[in-house]
Structure prediction request, 380 residues.
Amino acid sequence: MDLYEYQGKELFKRFGIPVSDGRLATTPDEARAAAEELGGPVVVKAQVLTGGRGKAGGVKLADDPADAEQKAKDIIGLDIRGHVVEKLWIETASDIAKEYYLSVTFDRGAKKPLFMFTTQGGVEIEEVAEKNPDALMRLHIDPLEGFQPWVARALVYGAGVEDPSEQKQIVSIIEKLYKCFVECDAMLTEINPLIVTPDGEVKALDSKFTVDDSSLYRHPDIAEFRDTKAADPLEALAREKNVTYVKLDGSVGILGNGAGLSMSTVDVVVVAGGKPANFLDLGGGGDAEGVVNALEVIAADKQVRSILFNIFGGITRCDEVARGILEALQRMELNVPMVVRLDGTNADEGRQILLDAAPPNLYVEPTMLEAAKKAVELAA
Ligand code: GDP
Ligand code: MN
Prediction:
């Protein structure tokens, strides 16, 4: 789950990482009021779940409340790479002397959290890694050993921070960020830029924060951050119905059992010349209830022109799935054609059940590729 900047900063604050005072606003009026409350110059910042807002015109300085209102008008409704701005974060403007970069991410390859720190902040970190790799300090934390103070010192000295007061503040921020990362079950926490003000104060001017979805059950406060409006409504429906659903951009809806099979089905649809609209993992739920839930989610996607139902029976028996499909079709109205491929346990029986019932708009194909071709043809 990706957090908005203001939510990430809220968590940073809880762990003692310095951030600027700010307010949330959804209208120009609220932006003006927020600027009045904060007093002095403010930054008006688009709250969208994508980076590079500055370059896209989504971060603007405002001298006074009237200016903040105007900047809010400019930014609300702005489309930043497909994300339309609805919320603004208004915060006290900072003077910037230096822009650094600090992050902790989960390095899956190494199976360890990875710290990255550089004094070349403010720009995309990939750019620093490419053009100036020596300036980027990287250090893993052994999760069993936990955080050791030398790590922070190695990062700070290694990156060439010379000012003792800066060193001290950054060492402390590094330790707090690690605690924040671990205790929030984060996958990524990034501060870019981590600024030094002309007075020598170090603080987080931005936040990028991703929390492991699987851990949300133990973070009800973070789960509450989830904004169902910004999230895809179908993904919300899928969550509600307890099915795994991934939205894609084409016209063939894909239903499989098991994540592996569902993803291979995506590939096969592409091989057959089609474009998947989404894919849904039925998991073990081949009963009517599971099939109805899955079909409801798929059918709610207006881009879906045909459905490819791909089942490999193991513990889930194909005859049971076939009965589930028939029962589902009686309970709901499906307006798009569906192609079914059954293989594995009791596949012959399952196919026979479907052929005997022969519901309209349902096609049974023997192989995955033929089924994909049929589904692509029907979606055209
Ligand atoms: P991003 O572009 O989405 O990464 O958004 P950021 O929050 O990082 O803001 C982009 C840039 O705006 C920063 O790198 C800063 O240069 C600038 N900026 C943000 N807040 C302030 C501020 O309080 N004062 C000043 N002077 N510049 C700011
Ligand atoms: Mn940034």
Notes: Residues 192, 206 surround manganese (II) ion (ligand 2) (CB under 6 Å). The first helix runs from residue 5 to 14. The mean pLDDT is 92. Residues 16 and 360 are 62 Å apart (CA to CA).
